[in-house]
Amino acid sequence: MSTDTASQRLTLVQAVRDGLYGELERDDDVLVMGEDVAENGGVFRATQGLHEAFGDDRVIDTPLSESGIVGSAIGMAAYGLRPVPEIQFMGFIPPAFDQLTSHAARLRNRSRGRYTCPMVVRAPYGGGIRAPELHSESKEMWFVHEPGLKVVVPSTPHDAKGLLASAIRDPDPVVFLEPKLIYRAFRESVPDERYTVPLGEAAVRREGADVTLITWGAMTRPAIEAAEAVADEVDVEVLDLRTLSPLDFETVRTSFEKTGRALVVQEAPRTGGLGSEIVATLQEESLLYQEAPIEQVAGFDTPFPLYALEDYYLPESDRIEDGIRAVATYEI
Amino acid sequence: MSIIQRGPDEQVQVLTDEGELRPDADAPELSDERLVEMYRTMKLARHFDERAVSLQRQGRMGTYPPMSGQEGAQVASAFALAEQDWIFPSYREHAAIYTRGWSLDQTLLYWMGHEGGNSPPPDTNVFTVTVPIATQIPHATGAAWAAKLRDTSEVMLCYFGDGATSEGDFHEGLNFAGVFDVPAVFFCNNNQWAISVPRERQTAASTLAQKATAYGFDGVQVDGMDPLAVYRVTKAAIEKARDPEEGETRPTMIEAVQYRFGAHTTADDPSVYRDEDEVQRWKEKDPIPRLETYLRGEGVVDDDAVEAIEADVREEVADAIETAEGVQRPAPEELFAHVYAEMPQRLEQQLAYLQRLRDRHGDDALLES
């Protein structure tokens, strides 16, 4: 038995596994399903050992069929179970798109609350690991744009476990996107016991007075590094959104009204990205606090390239530092 | 009765597991030169595969999906095509696309992450390499449908794996093919494992070939590690698609029963989910020694010929690796090329921004990750 104070230093992917373990143990209705999640323990080992611990009816290898996985999970969830389907890479979610957007997102609304869809679709997302074509996408906006879905992106092992627990216990469908670039990038202390990190609350990763940097997922680390790199010149406050939908705009606004200057760092293509929504809302609600144009350091409006060029595509510290300086030094 | 009009669970074989002509089978309708070429291509594919896995292990290439064990099905099916026919490959058909004119160095470049590796060579009737599962199946149906509407004699050969038969696109593509009676051949490389999920957990059906029955056309199971059987079955299916007899439907689904000797990709560890004993059992059906035994028995190749072929394929693969590794990292402008026929202004601005970043920081800094 674990004690309240026991903890281990886990990577993000280990923390996901730990979170799944805890929820499977806590609630018999929870089950994990997907391609290669049982016998193989997941292609990233995010479900390693779960099949041995919980058996064939709780941790299930499915046929190769994203629409089948998500569609049947919707039926299970409506029935009363708490399925946690995995899609192996975000780039392979599209066959399940109809099920996610036409059904999971709308089941509560269409049935006027009679049927609900408490499931969590997990998928690794993002670039930077020299992966093959269509294995590096950041398409979170597909789902942020879909009323009825929640979208969660952890950036630390501790949050990954706690956010996943909250997502599984949430009454609504959640798309839980895991930044595979940092699956094994670092370890941090993660309590053995179950705990939750609430959905819909951004985290202030670094306090600062001059510029508000808003980011999420795999970009959080380079954003913090860039903030540290320019610390002699500019005092940057770094916000990690953690939940993209529903967005914790209150934390964003509070920080912006303090600093008057902001930039958004996102891995996804710029056009129609979450950054644009944040900028638009700040202009509507906090225009009179604004001291500089709000910058966006984002992925280009191109397909994610094959890996030889991916480092040109991904926002990295030099680009982020340039963005911080542009915002910080702007004078009207 | 045609070779493909039989029960979908009657597996077509021409060679015994040992590589002898079965007593009930006819000799292949291939010249000695073509047989040797088929053998050479399979040997080349095996050697290429071994070198590619090794390149990945040495950090000289990214993730790579090996094909060892599957060369017979890939090469022999591609050999059955006429010049005007097309193939629609998945991501594991390195030998099939090579047979149709895609160079080895270009295949290497693709897996080395170069955009140029994704560009089908001119005058090569190969559609793009498809990474998502089963999505190429409706494309093959559509292209075959268009060929029929335009009254050409082209046939489309579409490759996919056992796992793909669980996807909606498989059903939709085959259903359209049956309804519109298009000149397409659906070639399932059933290698028994969709990463860690075995064929029997993929579908409750006893064969994959029988799925064709539901779409109203022929399904046939062939020993996919018997290149001569694969050739005969594919040839018959292609001819039927091109020029069906009265009462025949054009499309056919071929289930080529075979085995993936290696991992799903170099990122996969098959020892987690399957026994080495099983691998060894399937290796007894290895298509390469099997064809070699047949060719030696017929007096088509001897020790000298085999040695010469081995030396030749080593050289061709080594040259391809040298060529691919000699290609410079693509210019960053390649990110923006071919997104649209004409680059929108917004992309031009983003490209200019990337150029300014490069001027200001230098490529080395931007490539740090």
Describe the structure.
The complex is a heterodimer of chains A (332) and B (369). Chain A is an alpha/beta fold and 332 residues long. Chain A has two domains: 185 residues, Rossmann fold, CATH 3.40.50.970; 127 residues, Rossmann fold, CATH 3.40.50. Helix content of chain A is 35%, strand content 20%. Chain A is built from twelve helices and 14 strands. Chain A has a five-stranded mixed β-sheet with strand order 9-11-10-13-14, with helices on both faces. In chain A, helix 7 links the parallel strand 6 and strand 7. The longest helix of chain A is centred in the N-terminal third of the chain and has 15 residues. The radius of gyration of chain A is 20 Å and the shape is globular. Chain A starts with 6 loop residues before the first strand and ends with a helix. The model of chain A has no long low-confidence stretch (mean pLDDT 97). By secondary structure, chain B is of the alpha/beta class. Chain B has two domains: 294 residues, Thiamin diphosphate (ThDP)-binding fold, Pyr/PP domains (Rossmann fold); 36 residues. Chain B is built from 14 helices and seven strands. Chain B has a five-stranded parallel β-sheet with strand order 1-2-3-7-6, with helices on both faces. A two-stranded antiparallel ribbon of chain B has the order 4-5. The longest helix of chain B is centred in the first third of the chain and has 26 residues. The model of chain B has no long low-confidence stretch (mean pLDDT 96). Classes of the chains: A alpha/beta (332), B alpha/beta (369). At the A-B interface, helix 3, helix 11 and helix 12 of A face helix 13 and helix 14 of B.
